[in-house]
């Protein structure tokens, strides 16, 4: 997912300058509508059951109603900023600036850790998180990180596996408490 | 009398007292930490409560919910950074009072007002919930459908930037609830040949992803934010004379908070803002608001804690969540095998009294915790984010995995987290989506049953006055943003 024109939205005071259609909301609305269209198509592929068995309510009927409602609301989104500006709500506050590089790096880190979790096993995954994430987020004190990455995961694993009987996958290295 | 004794006997068992106290401690700590919230804590804790007996587990979560609302006021007062959204209004006067050297007094006022608001609302809860449940027992599927649609429409008025986006998020939640095998026909819907989706989307990973991972990603861009912390050595309880002078404000705000809490989807944040505004409107010293006036602290604090008790009324009596946090408690109830709604209270009335007892205990526990540990909880905010958020991520991974010992749930959690981040960025709330997810099944079941009853004639449903009443409220709700806009425009034109 990529962000569209994050820096171009004018501040609240200039909201009228955007015009009738809010460009970022238009993109968001189109993404939602595409999703709705795809899922609506998907509902047409659901198996049909005999009317007597379905009691006249086919399994696709309800999702189709919900998708239609979402589509109606989503199509109003590009114009909503006109109403929000009058109420003094700044819808662009969070997205005025581009996504912080560290946020993108963190996303990549989360994806990598979760992808590796099955291989590493739960204990090693916890240690990797506690070792790398503080460093990634700029903590420089290596001793603090090492103590944290050792004590915290082991304590959590002990408490959860022994006291709460939570099963911890050992991964391909077979490391567990 | 039996259910009352059975319910309260929960508090006599040491294990349960420890669990509830733990819930309170986690709640206050989480509430005090900016970025962490009680919905997030409930989402993270829920998978670990699944191995507990249902009633103590839900009681623990209810205690956490109560305490989390209070915990937010500590950081709102000491560092002007509300630990939880309901404490936003408390910071307006709490922080200025703390800044002029009266941090202990501000904390004392906030605590006493929170306890009063919480206790008053709990007494309303204990009377209103069974009454409402008894009325709801008369509801047939069409009435339930209309009520659930009304609850979903209340998302338009939920805290957040945009009513429209709340409704879209709610709709997406309802749609997510349709994933899996359709119960009446056995047809697979939106499973995309993934066997793990046959039983539907599991609540736990979605909740953890939306509330914990989404916030983690948002926090990564605020690492350099420096906050000025005011030291509070001890909490100073208000004097009797001061309490007497604030009595009306506390009672009024408690009433407002309880009422707002009872409304489906409305939560503590709205209650706190209305409580603050009303405290100002009725005050003889309006000009002192924003400079550290006691009414500016007790007004929102009594209201936001009262809303917590109020929100439990529709949650337990109707199975309709009163707020984002109670939506999560409802999800936990479902995961423990209960079907929330009037039948739950009818068949297991001791459940109501156990929750009441736990929440009452929580209110007095945070008074004690506040008196003894306010200084400690204010120090919690000094934990570096670089250590705090990896801990949250760790708990998120374990929580998602342990719910069904499946890595698929960890992937679902991550996807929900990424979606949650982008939703938040574009003004869509996580809480409306969760409420949609919880209400989705109820809406579909009651809709299908209604259609069968009325032989697919949707309009025939309106013959029922209750259905008509809820549909009228729904229309009013959905049109509210337009007519308030029209009213504002008229006002502006008149002023010009």
Mind explaining what this structure looks like?
The complex is a heterodimer of chains A (177) and B (496). Chain A is an all-alpha fold. In chain A, 62% of the residues lie in helices and 0% in strands. Chain A has 2 domains: 12-87; 101-163, no CATH class. Chain A has helices at 23-44, 51-54, 61-87, 101-120, 122-136, 142-163. In chain A, helix 4 runs antiparallel to helix 5 (122-136) and helix 5 (122-136) runs antiparallel to helix 6. With 496 residues, chain B is an all-alpha fold. Chain B contains 18 helices and 2 strands. Chain B has helices at residues 2-8, 14-32, 38-49, 54-78, 88-136, 141-153, 163-176, 203-219, 240-262, 268-282, 294-318, 324-335, 342-347, 349-380, 385-402, 407-425, 430-453, 465-495, and strands at 180-181, 188-189. Chain B is globular, with a radius of gyration of 22 Å. Chain B starts with a helix and ends with a helix. Chains A and B meet through helix 1, helix 3, helix 4, helix 5 and helix 6 of A and helix 7, strand 2, helix 8, helix 15 and helix 16 of B.
Short description:
The complex is a heterodimer of chains A (177) and B (496). Chain A is an all-alpha fold and 177 residues long. Chain A is built from six helices and no strands.
The proportion of residues forming helix of chain A, as a percent range, comes to: 55-70%
The total of helices of chain B stands at: 18
Q: Spans of chain B with pLDDT under 50 lasting ≥5 residues?
A: none
Strand order of the largest sheet of chain B: 1-2
In N-to-C order, the SSE pattern of chain B is HHHHHHHEEHHHHHHHHHHH
């Amino acid at each position: 997912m990529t962000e569209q024109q994050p820096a171009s939205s004018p501040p609240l005071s200039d909201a009228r300058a955007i015009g009738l259609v809010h460009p970022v909301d238009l993109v968001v609305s189109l993404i939602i509508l595409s999703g709705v269209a795809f899922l609506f198509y998907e509902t047409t592929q659901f198996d049909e059951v005999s009317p007597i068995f379905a009691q006249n309510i086919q399994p696709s009927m309800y999702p189709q109603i919900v998708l239609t409602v979402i589509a109606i609301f989503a199509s109003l989104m590009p114009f909503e900023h006109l109403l929000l500006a009058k109420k003094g709500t700044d819808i662009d506050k969070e997205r005025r600036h581009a996504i912080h590089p560290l946020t993108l790096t963190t996303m990549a880190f989360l994806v990598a850790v979760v992808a590796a979790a099955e291989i590493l096993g739960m204990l090693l995954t916890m240690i990797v998180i506690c070792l790398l994430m503080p460093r990634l987020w700029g903590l420089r004190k290596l001793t603090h990180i090492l103590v944290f990455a050792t004590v915290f995961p082991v304590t959590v694993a002990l408490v959860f596996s022994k006291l709460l009987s939570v099963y911890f996958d050992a991964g391909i290295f077979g490391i567990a408490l | 009398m039996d259910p009352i004794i059975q319910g309260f006997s929960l508090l006599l068992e040491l294990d349960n007292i420890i669990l509830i106290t733990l819930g309170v401690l986690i709640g206050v700590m989480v509430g005090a930490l900016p970025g962490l919230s009680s919905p997030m804590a409930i989402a993270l804790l829920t998978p670990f409560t699944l191995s507990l007996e249902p009633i103590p587990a839900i009681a623990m979560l209810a205690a956490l919910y109560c305490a989390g609302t209070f915990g937010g006021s500590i950081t709102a007062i000491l560092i002007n950074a509300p630990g939880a959204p309901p404490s936003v209004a408390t910071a307006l006067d709490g922080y200025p009072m703390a800044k002029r050297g009266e941090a202990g007094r501000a904390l004392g006022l906030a605590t006493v007002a929170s306890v009063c608001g919480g206790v008053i609302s709990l007494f309303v809860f204990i009377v209103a919930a069974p009454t409402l449940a008894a009325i709801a027992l008369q509801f047939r599927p069409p009435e339930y459908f209309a009520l659930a649609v009304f609850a979903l429409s209340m998302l338009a008025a939920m805290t957040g930037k945009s009513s429209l986006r709340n409704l879209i998020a709610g709709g997406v939640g309802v749609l997510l609830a349709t994933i899996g095998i359709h119960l009446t026909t056995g047809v697979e819907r939106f499973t995309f040949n993934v066997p793990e989706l046959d039983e539907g989307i599991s609540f736990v990973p979605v909740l953890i992803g939306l509330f914990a991972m989404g916030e983690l990603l948002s926090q990564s861009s605020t690492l350099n934010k420096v906050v000025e912390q005011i030291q509070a050595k001890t909490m100073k309880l208000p004097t009797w004379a001061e309490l007497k002078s604030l009595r009306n404000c506390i009672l009024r705000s408690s009433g407002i908070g309880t009422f707002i809490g009872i409304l489906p989807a409305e939560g503590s944040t709205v209650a706190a803002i209305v409580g603050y505004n009303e405290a100002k409107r009725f005050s003889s010293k309006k000009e002192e608001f924003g400079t550290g006036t006691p009414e500016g602290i007790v007004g929102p604090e009594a209201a936001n804690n009262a809303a917590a008790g109020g929100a439990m009324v529709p949650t337990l009596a109707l199975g309709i969540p009163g707020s984002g946090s109670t939506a999560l408690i409802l999800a936990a109830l479902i995961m423990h095998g209960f079907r929330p709604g009037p039948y739950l209270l009818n068949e297991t009335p001791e459940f109501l009294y156990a929750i009441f007892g736990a929440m009452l205990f929580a209110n007095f526990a945070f008074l004690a915790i506040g008196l003894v540990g306010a200084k400690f909880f204010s120090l919690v905010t000094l934990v570096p984010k670089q250590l705090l958020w990896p801990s949250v991520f760790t708990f998120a991974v374990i929580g998602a995995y342990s719910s069904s010992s499946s890595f698929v749930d960890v992937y679902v959690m991550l996807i929900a987290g990424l979606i949650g981040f982008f939703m938040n960025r574009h003004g869509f709330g996580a809480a409306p989506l969760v409420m949609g997810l919880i209400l989705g099944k109820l809406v579909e079941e009651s809709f299908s049953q209604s259609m069968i009853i009325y032989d697919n004639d949707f309009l025939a449903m309106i013959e029922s006055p209750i259905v008509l009443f809820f549909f009228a409220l729904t229309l009013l709700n959905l049109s509210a943003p337009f007519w308030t806009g029209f009213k504002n425009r008229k006002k502006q034109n008149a002023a010009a």
